Amino acid sequence: MHLLFLTAATLIVNIGKIGSIFINGTGCGTTKMCLFRPRGCDPNLDCTIGVALSIVGPNQMNVQMVAATIVPPVQQQYIAIAFSHDKLMGNDSVSECVISNMGEFVGYEPEVYLSYNKGKSNDRVFLNDDEHAEMFTNLAGEVVDNRLVCEFTQQVMPQIDNKNGLVWNLNSPFYLMAATGSAQPDEVNVHELNRDSHSFPITSTETINPKSFANNNLN
């Protein structure tokens, strides 16, 4: 059974070629954690997939994600970041942003969900309105120049029910994985399986604790 949460989202309509969300690569490895592909790419120009995490307040983590749009275009595409105890998919906590094409007069609508990789499958974790508002804030998303971009703020140490262990405290070392693919109203579809594809998931080479990038005033 797939459980989902629908939330009102910040709506950004792409009118020009200049995106509203700027992913600053400065500080990667020192003040923020970054994963970009290909190596040396510009996340605001030519990265095919990437994520950047930074601590922006007490218990607050800013998440920025980018991916090349799928060809041919799909109505719903997701970018997701998984927090894992190893480098393999399975038993991972996932934060996913789904951007839907709502048509010419509405534009693109972003939504953010919490989900869990059970083995090679993914199921969304049900959050009620209050839990979702506590867990996620400042959601924005857009599609510009064939790039899907999403940004939101997430609690590092969730102040909500752990849903029988499906909601994780992220103040711990994890391998990070980023993936993109098409989505449906209540679930994400399988990501690209061809390792030679520019859309194949990217994984960190070592474990990273998001809180390790916070200065003493933000811990």
Layout of secondary structure:
Layout (H helix, E strand, L loop, with lengths): L32 E5 L11 E9 L2 E9 L7 E9 L7 E10 L6 E11 L2 E4 L4 H7 E9 L2 E9 L19 E10 L2 E2 L13 E2 L16
Antiparallel strand pairs: 1-2, 2-3, 3-9, 4-5, 4-10, 5-6, 6-7, 8-9, 10-11, 10-12
Pfam families: DOMON (PF03351)
Keywords: Signal
Organism: Caenorhabditis japonica
Structure, described:
It is globular and about 40 Å long. It contains 1 helix and 12 strands, in the order βββββββαβββββ. The chain starts with 32 loop residues before the first strand and ends in a 16-residue tail after the last strand. Helix content is 3%, strand content 41%. The protein has one helix at 129-135; strands spanning 33-37, 49-57, 60-68, 76-84, 92-101, 108-118, 121-124, 136-144, 147-155, 175-184, 187-188, 202-203. It is mainly beta and 219 residues long. A hairpin with a 2-residue loop joins strand 6 and strand 7. The chain has a domain at 33-185. The strands form 2 sheets. Strands 4, 5, 6, 7, 10, 11 and 12 form a 7-stranded antiparallel sheet that branches. A 5-stranded antiparallel sheet has the order 1-2-3-9-8.
